[in-house]
Design goal:
The protein has 13 helices and 12 strands. With 339 residues, the protein is α/β, with parallel strands linked by helices. Helix 4 packs across helix 5.
């Protein structure tokens, strides 16, 4: 963990979280033994390819899945309160109030038949005992805070009347409506152009610092991680394969998967005649999880031990953790990588 968080108590603790789903082909486990802490005022990055369990972890924290289909195990502690043991009505008081979430597609997350003002107001009125006049003033304040111009006009508009960037700002305003202590941002800039992406990320960083909230940033963009995150969790096929502070991760990646991700980043001074590095193969189906290390079928370091026995997530050096039998060898290769 980064030095800035060592003397603080975590505001959110995820311990051995396991999320499985009942399917026609049997039970599949999308999140398998995931543990991490989130501290006030920090941005924790969660990275990995599509299908690695990033979003499933986020939605499990808020218990957004149909609990007739999803099975949660482990612990999720928010300010000492165990969330998985709460009744649905008790969880409703946490969701959106103490822990909020920004989804990656604002158009599908916003209700098309209600104005944005009504939708932000609903989040406030659900959790706070305030008058309609106070709510209206708070909605305008949130629209200004998130950089939406002419908020007195926008408050009466519908989602389809706004640009993608504006809709995402509305989602952030909703996430901030009740002054949540933890905000989960799930690929918040995926559908936006590069300029708007930068504006949205700058806003999240500014609000994180101003409000001292903990942020979980789910992304596949390592450039964003390097710029805004404090610590990083790297996931692969439902498990954490590496955890480190940002500097350690980019200067000395210990897991071959992390190393492959780093090599895949385009460099300004690279030889443009050469193809970019690609991690061979694809993420296996949850119905076909390999025996032993889950990354072994794609790993250049894999041997018989890797293919037969799952490595534990162990601490390596000062605070960095990795799930690899050959961390020492990977470390030597990782020294040469700079993001």
């Amino acid at each position: 963990m980064g030095g800035a968080t060592m003397d603080k108590e975590p505001i959110l603790e995820v311990k051995e979280l396991k999320t499985s789903f009942r399917t026609e082909r049997g039970k599949v486990t999308a999140v398998d033994g995931v543990s991490f802490d989130v501290f006030k005022g920090e941005i924790l990055g969660v990275v990995g390819e599509s299908g690695c369990g990033k979003s499933a972890t986020a939605q499990s924290i808020l218990r957004l899945y149909d609990e007739k289909q999803a099975i949660h195990e482990g612990e999720i502690c928010f300010e000492g309160k165990e969330l998985l043991s709460l009744r649905p009505s008790e969880m409703d008081k946490v969701r959106g109030n103490d822990i909020s979430m920004i989804f990656q597609d604002p158009l599908s997350s916003l209700n098309p038949v209600f104005t944005i003002g009504n939708q932000i107001a609903e989040a406030i009125l659900t959790h706070k005992n305030v008058s309609k006049r106070e709510t209206y003033a708070r909605v305008l304040e949130l629209l200004r805070l998130t950089g939406i111009p002419a908020p007195e006009k926008r408050i009466h508009e519908y989602p389809h009347e706004l640009s993608g960037g504006m809709r995402q700002r509305v989602m952030i305003a909703m996430a901030l409506a009740c002054e949540s202590k933890v905000m989960i941002a799930d690929e918040p800039t995926t559908a936006l152009d590069v300029t708007i992406q930068a504006q949205i990320m700058s806003m999240i960083v500014e609000l994180n610092q101003k409000l001292d909230m903990g942020v979980i940033l789910i992304t596949h963009d390592l450039g964003v991680v390097a710029e805004v995150c404090t610590r990083v969790v790297v996931m692969y096929l439902g498990q954490i394969v590496e955890e480190a502070d940002v500097k350690s991760l980019f200067t000395r990646p210990l897991h071959p998967y992390t190393q492959g991700l780093m090599k895949s980043i385009a460099q300004l001074d690279c030889d443009r005649s050469q193809p970019l590095h690609v991690i061979k193969g694809t993420v296996p189906s949850l119905h076909q999880i390999p025996e032993g290390c889950r990354f072994a079928p794609r790993c250049p370091f894999a041997d018989d031990l890797c293919r037969s026995k799952m490595p534990p997530l162990e601490q390596y050096g000062t605070g960095q953790k990795t799930r690899c039998w050959h961390a020492a060898t990977i470390s030597e290769e990782g020294e040469a990588i700079r993001a």
